[in-house]
Amino acid sequence: MSEPTTDARFKEMLDAGVHFGHLTRKWNPYMAPYIFDEKKGIHIIDLNKTAAKLDEACNALKQVAKSGKKILFVATKKQAKAIVEEKVKPTGMPYITERWSGGMLTNFPTIRKAIRKMSSIDKMSTDGTLDALSKRERLQISRKRAKLEKTLGSIADLTRLPAAIFIVDINKENIALAEAKKLNINTFAMVDTNSDPNKVDFAIPSNDDASKSIAVILDKVVAAIEEGINERKSAKDKQTSEKPAKAEKKEKQESEA
Question: pTM for this one?
Answer without folding.
Answer: 0.85
